[in-house]
Amino acid sequence: MNIQINLDIELAKKKMSLTELSQQVGVSMTNLSLLKTGKVKAIRFSTLAAICQALSCQPGDILQYVADDSVKDKSGI
Question: Are the beta carbons of 2 and 70 closer than 8 angstroms?
């Protein structure tokens, strides 16, 4: 997947534990842990918004697109 999850970085910046975040946003520790490790395929906008509010950050601080060097240009060049 080309989307990198930087939740652990934002948690460290705010000196917040996953437990604290879980309590603030109302999402289980299991689900946040799966998100943190990048083992999820989707996230609800409402969950992302709640995380951003709790961490005082933007969605782009948590989600990052990482280009895959093996993907070729559509023109075939």
Answer: no
Which has the higher per-residue pLDDT, 67 or 70? 67
pLDDT tens sequence across 14-35: 999 999 999 999 999 999 999 9
DSSP 32-75: HHHHHTT--S---HHHHHHHHHHHT--HHHHEEE---TTPPPTT
Please answer whether residues 59 and 25 qualify as being in contact, where contact means their C-beta atoms are separated by less than 8 angstroms.
no
Closest to 38 (Cα-Cα) out of 9, 72, 68? 9
The reported pTM is: 0.83
